[in-house]
Design a protein that fits this description.
single chain; 147 residues; alpha/beta; Immunoglobulin-like; globular; binds copper (II) ion
């Protein structure tokens, strides 16, 4: 009896999970010379972002929405390619290439619809928390299209 119940539970979880897996998209960002292209990416919750041409770069989050998962490893190169974990949390993820932060090699990933208030709050957080060249993320936040 317990086994049947577990099976039913497992199947119901599976049917719940499948649509997300099928719909999840992988977006590509190219680490071209000293900039991320595109530097602003709009994704849906559950999507991933794949960074390519990363041999001499990394992509490390310095700004994450509440409850959001960081990606990239501080002080470490990414390898040839790097894929973020599924980005489930709505909001703005700001990341930088640490070796090239001085060149403004930074980018943002916008997960889901972001309101003007959310955008303003993220900008405020960035101004309060980010130092020196990391403030370059603010320029990218300014260019995000709020909905
Ligand atoms: Cu770089």
């Amino acid at each position: 009896m317990i086994k049947v119940r577990n099976m039913v539970f497992a199947l119901s979880m599976l049917t719940f999970a499948i649509p997300n897996i099928v719909n999840a998209e992988e977006h590509v960002v190219n680490a071209a010379a000293r900039e991320f292209k595109p530097a602003i990416v709009y994704v849906q919750p559950g999507d991933t972002v794949k960074f390519i041409n990363m041999t001499s770069h990394n992509a490390v989050t310095y700004l994450v929405p509440d409850g959001g998962v960081n990606f990239g490893e501080k002080g470490k190169m990414a390898g040839a390619t790097m894929v973020t974990p599924p980005l489930e949390t709505n909001g703005i993820f700001g990341y930088v290439c640490e070796p090239h932060i001085g060149f403004g090699m930074v980018g943002v990933i916008v997960v889901g619809d972001v309101s003007a208030d959310q955008k303003a709050a993220t900008k405020e957080k960035a101004m309060a928390e980010l130092q020196g060249p990391f403030k370059r993320l603010i320029g990218k936040i300014n260019k995000i299209k709020a909905k």
